[in-house]
Amino acid sequence: MRELVFALEYEPGCNRVADTLADHPDARIRSLSLHATAEHLWRVDHASGTTAALEAIETAFLDSDYYADCLATEDCGATQTTEVLDHTDDTLVLYSHWERTPTCASVPHIARDHLGDGVLFETRNEGRHYTWRVIHAGDGDVAAFFEELDAAVGDCARMEMLRTAETAVPADDAVGELSPEQEAALRAAVEHGYYESPRAVDAGELAAHLDVPRSTLAYRLRRAEQHLANAYITDRQLPTEPSTPL
Hints:
Helix content is 35%, strand content 28%. The protein is an alpha+beta fold. Mean pLDDT is 84; it is low at 169-175.
């Protein structure tokens, strides 16, 4: 089995869910389950955030002109249904079903075309970044998958490859290499004093230096920091319980 981990960074106005999360930077959405056939897609998503953020996310899912996973730039005529399974002060669980049309495109359907049946998906939405983890048998045409995906997103999103490797551990626990973009952001942050106290440069200045949006810089640093923290803990192999003093 092999895994592909990549992120789509949506431009403003191209994806209503991304626009909503950009307005509520502390909110997150992760998939609990995601299944696709040739003509259908079913998924359950878990959103966390403030009460205002969850209300905005629910509205984005329920009132969008077409399904958020569709990569079509205009209304594709697909039939989609979204239902709220749970909604508390800090949690929102949504069920969605999408029946596509010939003009529809999506990451799962493009993956099925090029990577075969039995592909598994995990997603996370943070700000304008939509991160996908795709697990497949390893027999498909990965290059053709990314070529068609790049054509489908067009100018609406920029694709960033995060990892491609043999499947070993869950994405949150992976200790492989940083992506080039993450390494560049982390290196610039260190060199320009972003981690000094007090900071020699703020996030806006560092983003301007790297010529990326501030949200993109924050995303890359957060992923890099997560990677380093997981690698440190894995290397240390800290005990789960404190040892008994002698």
